[in-house]
Request: fold
Amino acid sequence: MKEKYLVINAGSSSLKFSLYDMPEANEIVNGYVEKIGKEDSFYTLKFNDKKIEKSARINTHTDAVQIMLKELLSNNFINSIDEIKGIGHRVLHGGEFYSESTLIDDEVLNNIKSLTKLGPLHHPGEVAGIESMMELLPGVPQVAVFDTAFHQTMPADNYLYAVPYDWYEENGVRKYGFHGTSHKYITEFMKNHYRNPNVNLIVCHIGSGASISCIKDGKCYDTTMGLTPLDGLVMGTRSGAIDPSIVEYICKERNMTVQEVTNALNKESGLLGVCGYNDFRDLEELAAKGNKKVKMAINVFKNSIIKYIAQYYFELEGKVDAIVFTAGVGENAIDLRADIVNSISNVMSITLNKEANDNIAKFKDIQSGIITTPNSKCDVIVMPTNEEYMILKDTLDISKSLEDGKQLKKVRR
Ligand code: ADP
Reply:
C-alpha cells in the first residue's frame, strides 16, 4: 500500500485539493469544488488527462470535504482513508504567530481562528476544511502552510507602517506579505542554483494577484503586499498601493460605504479598472491591435513593477544575484518582460537576451530560464512556481518527523 498525502487549498467559496503518492510525489488526482453555498455549486476531478464535472448541492466547506473523500474512495484513488498519511492546508494568514509551516493542534487552530479578522474572506473556509479533516481523519497529521510565514524575517524597519504605534501593538496593523509559499519555493531553488544560502534576489510573482519580494542573504527582507493582499503592485483587479485618502473622498463623492469602496479596490480596480480587462492574454491581444486604453493600463502595470524592482535594487545596495519572474503573467508575458528588462538595463548593467526571452517555454523543463546575456551584472530568470509542491514538502517533512519522533519514543520505552 502506497502512502498518500493530500494538499487542500480552501478559498472563500471554493476548495481545491490534490492527492499525491509517495515517495514519487506524483499527483494522482486533483479536484476543484466551486460555488460552495450557491445554488449552482459543482466540482471537477482531473486525473490521467481525464476531466469529470459534476453538479451537486454543496452548502458548506464541510460538505466539500465529504464529497472529496467520497470521490477519492469510489474512484479507487484510495482504497481506505488509512492510506492518507498527512494533510497540508494552505492558510492565508499566520499573523505574527508563524514563521514556518506548523503541525495543527487545538492551539494552532485557535490562533488561525483568531486571525479571521485579518483574512475574513479566506479563514472561515480554511478553518472549516481543517476542522472537517480533523474530525474525519483523527490521528492523521494536519499541517498549516501559511502564505505569510516566509515574510516573517522582515525587519521592523520594513514591516512597520508610520501610523500610531498602538495600531500595531493592539490591532496587529503591519506589513505581513503574501504569496510566501511561492517566494519561498523560488528562493530555495535559487539558493541551490547559485550554491549560496545567502543569495540576494528580487522575486516577481506576477499572476492575477501580484507581489514582489526582496530577498537579502537568503531571507525575505521586504515585500510589496501589506496587512492584506491589496497593497503593492497594480494587479488584475486590485488597485495596489494608492493614496489612503481616496477611500474617504470616494465614499463622499459617490455616496458609497467603506465596504463598497474596499470591494471596488479589490475586485473592480487594477488592470480591469483602468481598461475593462484583467486577463493579460486579452490585454496583449488588444494592445497589439492598437487599443490605447489597454496600452495605458499595461504601462501603469509595468511602471508599478519597475518602481518596486528599483526600490529593492537599492535596498540590496545593487548586489543582486537575480531578478526572477514567475506565475501566470511573469512566466508567459514575453513583451512585458522585455519592456521591463530594457527599462532597467542601463542602471543595472544587464542586457536582454531576446532569443531566450522569446523562446523561454523551451527552458521551462530544465528550469534555468536565464533571459539576460552572460556579461550582465545580474541574471534575469523566468521560472515556474510550484506552491503545491512546497505545501506537500512541508507536510511530508512535518509528518515524517512526527513518525520518527513516535518511533523514537517506542524505542526509548
Ligand atoms: P493566480 O494564481 O493569481 O490566479 P496565475 O499565476 O494563474 O494567477 O496567473 C493568471 C494570469 O496569468 C491571468 O490573468 C493571465 O492573464 C495570465 N496568463 C496566463 N497565461 C498567459 C499567457 N500565455 N500569456 C500572457 N498572460 C498569461
In short: Residues 3-146+388-403 form a domain with the Nucleotidyltransferase; domain 5 fold (CATH 3.30.420.40). The two ends are 28 Å apart (CA to CA). Residues 399 and 405 are 10 Å apart (CA to CA). The longest helix spans residues 387-412.
